[in-house]
Amino acid sequence: MHYLPHAKQADGGHAARDTKVDRILVGEDYTYWGGLGPIVPQHIMSLFPNPRGQKCPADGALLQELHQLIDITNPKGLVGDPADWDNPRYFKS
């Protein structure tokens, strides 16, 4: 999620939550789709269990289909802005 220094955030907001540890992720080969990501077909969604942190065995064929959909071997860097960039739920004036 994005952060605007002048915006008020409820309960400390995501910036407080996301920066409470002393680690960072650095990478060169990635794709950040933001709000411009490809539409994932419903039958592939079983690869994304809910809630967070839950583990499930991955179906190799579905995983291969997902890799082709997102072109995993060709990282694109920053593709689009966050999907909720203007969502008032996160930022109140």
What labels would you give this structure?
about 90 residues, two-stranded parallel sheet, mainly alpha
Unreliable parts? none
Number of DSSP E strands: 2
Instruction: Provide the residue-averaged pLDDT.
Output: 81
Describe the global form.
globular
Strand order of the largest sheet: 1-2
Which percent range describes the beta-strand content? under 5%
* Number of separate helices: 2
In percent, how helical is the residue content? 10-25%
Rg computed from alpha carbons, rounded to a whole number of angstroms: 16 Å
Order of helices and strands: HEHE
Termini gap: 17 Å
Structural class: mainly alpha
The major beta sheet can be summarized as:
2 strands, parallel
Q: What does this protein structure show overall?
A:
Helices cover 18% and strands 4% of the residues. The protein has 2 helices and 2 strands. It has helices at residues 13-18, 60-70, and strands at residues 31-32, 77-78. The longest helix has 11 residues, at 60-70. It is globular, with a radius of gyration of 16 Å. By secondary structure, it is mainly alpha-helical. A two-stranded parallel sheet has the order 1-2.
Element layout with pairings:
Elements (H helix, E strand, L loop, with lengths): L12 H6 L12 E2 L27 H11 L6 E2 L15
Parallel strand pairs: 1-2
Short précis:
The chain has helices at about 15-20, 60-70; strands at about 30, 75-80. It has about 90 residues and is mainly alpha-helical.
